[in-house]
């Protein structure tokens, strides 16, 4: 299985703004083995901007980039077991009936099940400025003294031996 399929209320524009497709509860190790993500439209969701007539249609395919970063809420708090699937390139498509009405909004399949020829698609680079570096999220701001204590503990040296220089 080389494709993860998601059933989402978010359209192409929102997916790009968010930096990928998320916040999904999924098996990250399994997704890391996938090459593609196929987004299908959930037009019935209250926040959906998909036309009602496009419910269940596949509307976007992305080439998954690795690693899959953990998902965070808007305040930078880690959301347990939630992930954003980021991709390097994407193509807009329209495949009716791609979502089979499954209970879980994440499914794994082979791209060949959808008769998609990736060579025929108009691939676009995913805007790199939209991929959010989440490394700093979830880290609280520290005072200089707190930083010294943390470094002291990590290195096993007295805090009064730590000097911090800030250059701006």
Write up this protein.
The chain has a 6-stranded mixed sheet, with no helix packed on it. It contains 3 helices and 9 strands. Helices cover 14% and strands 29% of the residues. The protein folds into 2 domains: 3-130, ph1033 like fold; 138-168, no CATH class. It is elongated, with a radius of gyration of 20 Å. By secondary structure, the protein is of the alpha+beta class.
Strand content: 25-35%
CATH topology of the largest domain: ph1033 like fold
Q: Terminal Cα separation, in Å? A: 49 Å
Radius of gyration: 20 Å
Architecture (CATH level 2) name of the largest domain: Roll
Shape: elongated
Tally the beta strands: 9
Q: How many distinct helices? A: 3
Order of helices and strands: EHEHEEEEEEEH
Count of individual domains: 2
Mean of all residue-level pLDDT scores: 86
Instruction: Note the main sheet.
Output: 6 strands, mixed
Strand order within the widest beta sheet = 8-1-3-4-7-9
Helix content: 10-25%
Give a concise summary.
The chain has 168 residues and is an alpha+beta fold.
List the helices and strands and how they pair.
Elements: E1 3-8, H1 12-18, E2 21-24, H2 28-32, E3 36-41, E4 58-64, E5 70-72, E6 78-85, E7 87-95, E8 106-109, E9 124-125, H3 144-155
Parallel strand pairs: 1-3
Antiparallel strand pairs: 1-8, 2-6, 3-4, 4-7, 5-6, 7-9
């Amino acid at each position: 299985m080389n494709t993860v399929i998601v059933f989402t209320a978010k359209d192409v524009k929102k997916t790009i703004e968010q930096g990928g497709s998320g916040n999904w509860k999924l098996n990250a190790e399994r997704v890391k083995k996938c090459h593609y993500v196929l987004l299908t439209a959930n037009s019935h969701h209250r926040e959906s901007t998909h036309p009602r007539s496009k419910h269940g249609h596949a509307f976007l395919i992305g080439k998954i980039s690795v690693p899959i970063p953990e998902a965070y809420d808007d305040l930078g708090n880690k959301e347990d077991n939630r992930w954003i699937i980021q991709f390097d390139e994407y193509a807009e498509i329209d495949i009716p009936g791609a979502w089979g009405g499954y209970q879980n909004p994440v499914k794994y399949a082979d791209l060949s099940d959808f008769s998609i020829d990736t060579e025929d698609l108009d691939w676009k680079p995913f805007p790199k400025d939209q991929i959010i570096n989440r490394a700093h999220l979830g880290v609280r701001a520290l005072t200089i003294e707190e930083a010294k204590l943390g470094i002291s503990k990590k290195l096993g040296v007295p805090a009064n031996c730590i000097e911090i220089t800030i250059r701006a």
